[in-house]
Each structure stands twice: as structure tokens, then as C-alpha cells.
Design a protein that fits this description.
Helices cover about 60% and strands about 20% of the residues. It is an alpha+beta fold. Among the domains are: about 140 residues, 2-Layer Sandwich (Beta-Lactamase), CATH 3.30.450; about 150 residues, 2-Layer Sandwich (Heat Shock Protein 90). The protein has a five-stranded mixed sheet. Strands 2-1-4-3 form a four-stranded antiparallel sheet, with helices on both faces. A hairpin with a 4-residue loop joins strand 1 and strand 2. The site of adenosine-5'-diphosphate has 22 residues, from helix 7 and helix 9.
Length: about 425
């Protein structure tokens, strides 16, 4: 390989634009025996030439700068007029690749020498090497632009994701808050409604109570007079009156007794009770109720079972009143039994800070509509009922700071659950 071919190969394989420009310039300068020169490249974005290499290397300082300015002016002028300019002082060699203008070699103090075929080859190789290197440079710049754009987008994406996470968290918190708010509003509304219902009920109870007790009081005296008069008549007539008259008189006597019982109950129920708060023995109260009710329940084929909890915690209140409540519930349970009878269970259960007292029956059950009105004073489904038992019972349990609730479905029996708070000691209350 001759020296020229080697030099052309070096230009074509130069690893950078600077080196390709410097090698081309050196060869051109040698060719034209020039004293100095520059390689300028056309920058289509900036629309002007820039200097890619100047020669010789030691040409620095003010001289070098002037030389470069001159070379640029010549190259710009030559590109505008699209002329190859040469005179005895300078030689301008335009470089094109595939018809695309790449730049120019500007030589000073040049004298033409060498075969023109070889010069054409030098031109081609230089133009190609510079075009390729410029493209590579542009591609590298675009690549690094893309890389930094990608990094910028990645940062942006990370920021957006972070923001999204924050928004999600805020939304979740807001959802949670509004759910709990709804629940709280619901809770308060229910509490308010309950309080209102209780208020109406106790007012109703008070009015009815006053009326009933004054009526019962007024009617009780004449009733007693009638009862004792009737007793006397029966005892005087019993010897010589026919059976049917005596039977009628006994029916009258039984009905009067019933009226008397109702009056007594009314007076009992509505008499303002003083509240004694003493330790309660709930199991003993259950036993007492069983003894009191035994005969009546036996007649109706009803079995009364006790399931009593051992070592119940202390509960306080008025034993008589609690017994009254329990009697009311057992009586109702018995009245709800079918003619074939059934089972009533009394339970006492220790449950955390509370004691539950349950009356469970296998009776006919209660419809949802009835259940809503169960504790209303004077609500009854019985032809001979007063509708006071549950209203009074609820009032008594409320005074004991307890609750009374019912679970029932038609045909599957009924459970009344009284819950009383466990105490550390008992105080007198009113
Ligand atoms: P009364 O017993 O005078 O009707 P209550 O206040 O004791 O009044 O009871 C109200 C109503 O509740 C009853 O008429 C009855 O419809 C219903 N009830 C109460 N306890 C039961 C029960 N264990 N099983 C079915 N219904 C019941
Ligand atoms: Mg009743």
C-alpha cells in the first residue's frame, strides 16, 4: 500500500471529527504546499460555517484567530456564490457528499501540485469522512438529548406517581372519614330518636298513670262495698236458693274480684315508687318467681326451667321491682303458649361488666309490627289485657340503668333479655 492510500485510509477511519478534519487538512496542505489552512464545516442549523481544524498546530494566538476569521469569511462568501475561489494567495476546496455541501478546505499561500485524479480522491474521502463524523456527532448529541429527556421524563413520572400516591392516600382518608362520619351521624340520629321515643313514652305513661290511679282510687271504695255486700248475700242465701242462682252470684263475685285485681295492679303500677338500691340476688328472685307461678303454669302444661349462672357479680336495685318485672314477663310468656303448653326458661348469665336475665319461651312469637309497639303503654293484643306490663317493666329496668330487649319471630318463640350493670357497691337512689 503506497503512502497516499494509507493516508486516505487514516482519514476515512479517523475516530473523531477533529481527527478526520486535521488529517484531511494536513494532506490538502501538503498537496498544495500551503503555509497554513483551515477546514470549515457547514452548520445547517446555525446557517454558517464553523472551523473544524486549523493548520499548522503551532499557529495560535492572534495570528491563528485572524487566520480562522479569514478562512470563515472566504468559505461563507464562496458558499453564497457557489464558486471555487482560487488566487495566488488562497485556495478554496469545497467538499460535498452525495450532492450535499459539507464544508470547505481553505489554504493560504497555496500552489497547485500533484495529479488531479488523486486530488479528486482526497476530496471524496475527506468529504465522506467529515460528513460521516458530523452525522455521528449529531446522532451522539441527539442521543444524549434523548437520554437526558428520558431522565427528565422519568423524574417527572416519579413525581407524578408520588403525587398520585398522595392523592390516593388523601382519598382513602377522606373516604374513611366520611364513612365514619356517616356512621356517627347514624348513631346520633338513632340515639336521638330513641331518646325522643322514651320521652314520649314516659309522658304518656305519666298522664295515663295519673288518670288510671285516680280512677282506680275512686272506684275501689264502692267496689269493696259491693264485694262485701255480695259476700253477705251469698252466705245468707246459700242454704235455700237453687244452684243456678248461686252459680250466677259466684260468677258476679269472680268478675268483681277481677276488677279488684285490675284496680290494685293499676294502683301498684302508677304509685310513684321510691327506689331502694340494695344488692340483688337475681338467682333467688328467679326461684321465687318459679314458686309463685308453679300452680298456674302446671295447669297450663307449661314447664318452667331455671338455668342460673354461678357467682354472678354484684348488681343493685329493688328486689320487689325486679321480681315484678320477671312476673310480668313469665305471665306474658305463659299467655303466649299454645293450648298444648310449652317451656319457659329463666336464665342468668355473667357477661363481662353486665349480668343478663333472660326469659325464653316456646310460644307463638311476635310479628315485627307488634314488636315495634310492644313497650308502648296500653298496647295489647289480648281481649282482657291492660297493655301495661311491658311499659312498666321497661320503666323499672331503666331506673336500674339497665336495658330490656326482645328477640322474636312468629312461630319460633320469644326471648326477653334484661341487662343490668355489674357494680362495685350499691348506693341509695331515688
Ligand atoms: P298485656 O299482657 O296486658 O297485653 P303487656 O305490656 O304485658 O300487656 O304486653 C303487651 C303485648 O305484647 C301483649 O299483648 C302481647 O301481644 C305481646 N307480648 C308480650 N310478651 C309476649 C310473649 N312472650 N310472646 C308473645 N307476645 C308477647
Ligand atoms: Mg302482660
Amino acid at each position: 500500500m503506497d503512502e497516499m492510500t494509507q493516508l486516505l485510509l487514516d482519514i476515512a477511519t479517523a475516530p473523531s471529527l477533529d481527527q478526520a478534519a486535521a488529517l484531511s487538512l494536513a494532506l490538502f496542505a501538503r498537496w498544495f504546499s500551503a503555509s497554513a489552512g483551515c477546514v470549515t464545516l457547514w452548520d445547517s442549523e446555525l446557517n454558517r460555517h464553523i472551523v473544524a481544524a486549523s493548520w499548522p498546530a503551532e499557529l495560535a494566538g492572534a495570528d491563528g484567530a485572524m487566520l480562522r476569521r479569514q478562512a470563515l469569511a472566504l468559505a461563507n462568501a464562496a458558499r453564497q456564490t457557489e464558486l471555487n475561489r482560487s488566487d495566488q494567495a488562497t485556495h478554496l476546496e469545497p467538499l460535498s457528499e452525495d450532492g450535499q455541501y459539507v464544508g470547505a478546505v481553505v489554504l493560504f499561500d497555496a500552489a497547485c501540485a500533484g495529479p488531479s485524479e488523486a486530488l479528486a480522491q482526497l476530496r471524496r474521502v475527506s468529504a465522506h469522512a467529515l460528513a460521516v463524523q458530523s452525522q455521528l456527532g449529531r446522532a451522539a448529541r441527539e442521543h444524549s438529548d434523548l437520554v437526558s429527556e428520558r431522565e427528565r421524563l422519568q423524574h417527572l413520572l416519579a413525581a407524578v406517581e408520588q403525587q398520585q400516591r398522595t392523592i390516593d392516600q388523601l382519598l382513602a382518608a377522606e373516604r374513611q372519614w366520611s364513612t365514619s362520619l356517616e356512621a356517627r351521624v347514624e348513631e346520633r340520629t338513632t340515639a336521638l330518636r330513641d331518646a325522643q321515643a322514651r320521652l314520649i313514652q314516659s309522658e304518656k305513661l305519666a298522664v295515663v298513670g295519673q288518670l288510671a290511679s285516680s280512677l282506680a282510687h275512686e272506684l275501689n271504695n264502692p267496689l269493696q262495698a259491693i264485694q262485701s255486700g255480695l259476700g253477705l248475700v251469698i252466705s245468707e242465701m246459700s242454704a235455700n236458693k237453687p244452684d243456678h242462682v248461686m252459680q250466677d252470684l259466684h260468677v258476679i263475685q269472680a268478675e268483681l274480684d277481677r276488677i279488684g285485681t285490675i284496680f290494685r295492679q293499676m294502683l301498684d303500677f302508677y304509685r310513684p315508687v321510691t327506689f331502694e338500691s340494695r344488692p340483688l340476688d337475681l338467682n333467688a328472685i328467679c326461684e321465687g318467681v318459679r314458686i309463685l307461678m308453679r300452680k298456674k303454669l302446671q295447669e297450663a302444661s307449661i314447664t318452667l326451667r331455671l338455668q342460673l349462672g354461678a357467682q354472678l357479680p354484684l348488681t343493685c336495685g329493688d328486689s320487689n321491682q325486679i321480681k315484678q318485672v320477671l312476673l310480668n314477663l313469665v305471665l306474658n310468656a305463659a299467655e303466649a303458649m299454645p293450648p298444648a303448653g310449652g317451656v319457659i326458661t329463666l336464665q342468668t348469665i355473667h357477661n363481662g361488666q353486665q349480668v343478663c336475665l333472660c326469659v325464653i319461651d316456646t310460644g307463638v312469637g311476635i310479628t315485627p309490627e307488634q314488636r315495634n309497639r310492644l313497650f308502648e303503654p296500653l298496647f295489647t293484643t289480648k281481649t282482657r289485657g291492660l297493655g301495661l306490663g311491658l311499659a312498666i317493666s321497661q320503666e323499672i329496668i331503666r331506673r336500674h340503668e339497665g336495658t330490656i330487649a326482645v328477640q322474636s319471630a312468629p312461630g319460633s318463640g320469644t326471648t326477653f333479655e334484661i341487662v343490668l350493670p355489674a357494680r362495685k357497691q350499691c348506693h341509695e337512689q331515688s
